[in-house]
Amino acid sequence: MKHKALRDQVIVITGASSGIGLATARMAVKSGARVVLAARSGTALAAIVSEIEASGGRAVSVVADVGVRSDVETIAEMAVATFGGFDTWVNVAGVTIYGPLTEVSDADHARLVQTNLWGTVYGSLVAVAHLGRRGGALINVGSVASDLAFPFQGMYSATKHAVKGFTDALRMELRHVGTPVSVSLIKPTSIDTPLPRRARNYMNREPLLPPPVYPPEEVANAILHCAVHPQRDVFVGGAGKVFAASKEFAPGAFDLLAPAIVAFQQRPGRPRRPAGTLHGPEQDDTGHARGDQPGYVMRTSAYTRASLHPVALIAGAVGLGLAATALVAPRSTGRRS
Question: What's residue 269's pLDDT?
């Protein structure tokens, strides 16, 4: 499928008050799209809508908890009432927990599943009910944890595995009945967003993203590419693709990395913030796309940019293959025996 140009689209984005959702909203508006922004923080959403309107863009916001189906239906109703409908729905909203699975409370586990899995399920089903009549794109944001598991983020990994399974099954069912809706799964690696700082934290230190770390705008670029030129799966960050592929060939070896992964996830010298935003938004939330990740943050992902343009990727691979063949092929001396 190929969809409308971004400038002609209405795009719904959940989890739009910060991180990847906010970066996607800003990038979409710069491309001329109209946006419907949803999140739990009304304060942050109001500030973002004002920012967009001041720049000449068009936006409307809905305070909603994606773990509540009636809230998700209200998002769709707002899009219809304001813009006559929508062309792309992006499920971004997500939370995480850091800590051993055996120490996390049942209530915290349940809240995480309600947001990450059921929020994606509700958003997808509500979106498809509307898009099935006019066509469009559904884009779910999973994670590299859709293919890998990480110690001390066990339930987060479980929900992202479930999001992948749900997304793949929904895509198959829509194709089976000929519904004109593309379904894409975006799988970011470590992304510099406020997510770690806002996590429910059972560790003794503040969470830290393992390197390499990529900017949220790189994920936003992949999302908006799929809104026009759909792709099945997109890894954001070549490191994630390498780790996922490596685990397929040597799962036992990946398991041995557990101590290093646990160590990389803890930030030395920073006191932990135990509560986070698992059960509700921050009271002083003003909306931030970037986090406060120390150290170097990659500017782009060459792998991701290439994967979004597979023809160019194949051409480049063929070119490299021909060059390699030329280097190793025997050369003629110009004399005949």
Answer: 67
